[in-house]
Amino acid sequence: MHIIAHRGFSSRYTEMSAEAYEKALELPIHGVECDVRLSKDGQLMCFHDPTLLRMFDDPRRVASTSSKELSALGVLRLDELLDMVLAYPNRHLYIEAKHPTRFGRMLEEQIVLRLCYRKLVDDPRMHYISFSTAGTRRMAKLAPKMHTVRLLRDWEWCAKGQGISLVRGRANPEKITANTYMFTVNEPEDIRWAQQQGLGMLATDAPDVALSLQTNQ
């Protein structure tokens, strides 16, 4: 079972901060996950929410804020995270495109552009995930060799090999395969259960806990 640090080592450090990713990458795990949005000036920024309110008590929208202003707050650019990940030869990066967005298809286009610039678009360490059906279809056309995962809401049909929540996984364990990506699994008993089901990819805020349980099997 591949352990993926959800938003970095977010159970101990500020989510998607440089420190959260540094600490996660130091662990002998499969990889890390990030969310990406486009800034006002079209730069890919690692940020989950559409606004800065929850993280910075700032009502501005990410899409209406410049990359310079976001960087000043400590928000990482995707390029910066790529530098960190590439410092570890065997670490994978799961890039979640956040939709809906006023930029539409530009989000996938910019992801491919940045990966192409580094000759990573066909690299097996790079993965694309999204709740957006349109986004995953676009990525399949733009980068047909890239591994993509369509994340499913709990009310959506659970197809094999997709990205599902722990709740949906518990409800439909027969759908879990070695190609399934499950989010966000943090409790020890849930991590053990997921591994027993033959889960392929586990996204967790507590990669250290998942690693210790996997080591102790």
UniProtKB/TrEMBL annotation:
Keyword Hydrolase among record annotations: yes
Pfam families found in the cross-reference section: GDPD
PROSITE patterns: GP_PDE
Superkingdom of origin: Bacteria
Keyword Chaperone tagged: no
EC code: 3.1.4.46
Keywords: Hydrolase
Residue ranges of every copy of the GP-PDE domain listed in the record: 1-217
Enzyme class of the recorded protein, top EC level: hydrolase
Gene Ontology terms: biological process: lipid metabolic process
Alphabetized GO MF terms: glycerophosphodiester phosphodiesterase activity
Classification via InterPro entries: GP_PDE_dom (IPR030395), PLC-like_Pdiesterase_TIM-brl (IPR017946)
Name by which UniProt lists this protein: Putative glycerophosphoryl diester phosphodiesterase 1
Species of provenance: Corynebacterium pseudopelargi
